Amino acid sequence: MYFADGHCDFLYGMVNEGYDIAKPAAGQSVALDRLKAGGVKLQFFAAWIDVKHRRSYLQQFLSMYDAYERMLEEHTEFVPLTKDFDVSGDKIATVLTIEGGEAIEGYEDILRCVHRMGVKAMTLTWNTRNELASPALGKNKKGLTFLGKNIVREMGRLGMAVDVSHLNDAGIDDVLAENVKVFASHSNARAVFDSPRSHCDAHIKEIARRGGTIGVNFYYKQLTSERMAHIDDIVRHAEHICEVGGVECLAIGSDFDGMGQYPVGLSDPSMLPAFADALEKAGIRGEALEAACYKNLMRFAKLLC
Fold it and tell me: Which of 131, 229, 236, 247 is the most exposed place for a label (fewest CB within 10 A)?
């Protein structure tokens, strides 16, 4: 079984924690050998913008862009995704994204520059309000700002995907009102566990209708009210997303290297086959299982190439 993962925070760790894709440090999840062992054929690498960091937002992105490029240069197993990528080969396809619209510092010209540099998708926010939009975890219930709407329209013109993970409901409504490619890289189902970071059924249904994917997130605080999450908790969210949006929209958005505590038995990419086994036991089998594990996200990602 192959896998595609729509979100990890390895690049931030590479720049700020000294992570090495070939020699994992303590606490590091994403590593080359683990990706290979888990059958990962497509990995999205997010450049997460830390609003508390001493460096400017654009400088942070450039540092992670440099880290991404160095990783590709030093490890030829990684290749940028192309429309003709062969999943049966020995390469791992990569997609560069931005987590946090702060990176473009409010400028359309910077947006166009990062797109030319290979960025295929961007979340408009992380967990703090910015000049584009308000986050799901914030108190502001307003939608996109005037600038945010213009940025989304420019993303649509460029062919960049708008990643609605971390965005509040009103902001998602505004994104869905535009002619853009839309997906949720790492989000869950609010009907299963009531977290504002998860999506309501109406949004799941509309993202699916438009050909987007929803990648189930492994962060325990978005899965369950318990202090520890298990694989079955993720499966419950996956089942609901399938029921509401159809199996064609289900994907994986692990958030590896973006949390301090993982579900039992699912702390790095080598363990993804255990998740596939759990999906199969839940009744997601055959072509549906392959679609959920890698084909859906691979299809969507190739639209961005």
Answer: 131
